[in-house]
Every structure is written in structure tokens, then in C-alpha cells.
Request: fold
Amino acid sequence: MYKISYLDRLKSALTNLPSIGEKSAERITFFLLSNREIAEEIINALSDTIKNVQFCKNCHGFSDGEICHICEDTLREKVLCIVEKPEDVILLEKVLGRKWYYHVTGGVISPANNKTPDDLHLKDIPERIKKERILEVVLALPPTVEGDTTGYYIKGLIEQEGLKVKISRISRGIPRGSDLSFQDGQTLKDALMERREL
Ligand SMILES: [Zn+2]
Reply:
């Protein structure tokens, strides 16, 4: 039987990627083997990224250093936008430009998935509001029951500390149960701008 184990190893590694099935993995493997320069660039970019990209200690988004360039930017509006995933920050930054600050929760409260508030980055939100003199908190969490629960929990944390900030959440245009990343830029921007107070 004609078998090259290196090929199988790469193919099976590639099938771990999102949206890559057996057929695609095989196509990519053959493509990389016949385009060695592209393969080398991917190896280097991947290795540098994995080695150097970390999570910001302040907002928990992706960062090149301990604190990310957004947290270090002093010229933004005093609005803290709460999102679930680090990639949501990149998406919103693309849609809104250099406008707000962000906080990544790292998930939503979900008893079914064993996610409690202690597993998420929630406790440091009131601290950030105080320290960074935040005037408004915008909840851009997934429009699901879990996302809502997490939003109300955050509201509770903020009120417990007696902080007087406006708390709102994105409304219009985001269908329930869907992911932020599946929205087109304009829909997402509308949902953010036409937010409702919680
Ligand atoms: Zn940051």
C-alpha cells in the first residue's frame, strides 16, 4: 500500500481546524507540498504568533505584550464594551474604529457547560470602571439565554459596588442565538449604536 506517514500526520492535524474536513485537509497538504515558499511563510508566521501573542492582563483580549495597545490608548471614549471572545474585539474594532475600550469575559455563565462566574473574567469589571473612569458599559454578549444571564450578573456586580454608570446592551438586528462574528459590519454597527439601556 502506498503510504507516507508525514502526509497523514499533516492531514490529520489540519482536520482539527474549524471548517476543514478530510477533503480540504488533503487539498491543503498537497498545495503546501508544491508551494514550499508559502508553506515556509505559514510555518514562520504561525510559530511567531503562537510564541508572541498573549492575553492582555487588563482586558483579556489578544496582545503583543502584557497590556494591549487598546488599553494603553488614552484617547478613546470612556465606554467599556463587554464581549465574550478575544476575536470579538478585533471584529468590533474593525466596525467601530478607534472608539471604545473592551473587556473579554472568556465565555458566558452556563450551568449546562459547567461555566460559573468564577471561570470568567467578570470580577475585575467594577475595578476597571473605577480605575479607568468609565461612564458607560455596553454589553455585546451573545443574544442567548446564557448571554443575558451573564449580562444581568455583570449589572449586579456593578450595582453592588454602587457605581453610577449607564449600562446598555446591543439590541436591534442581531438575531437571538447567533454569534457576533456572523453579522455583517453595518448590522453590527447599528446594533451597537441603537443600544437599549438595561
Ligand atoms: Zn487590553
Residues 56, 58-59, 61, 63, 67-68, 70-71 surround zinc ion (CB under 6 Å). The mean pLDDT is 91.
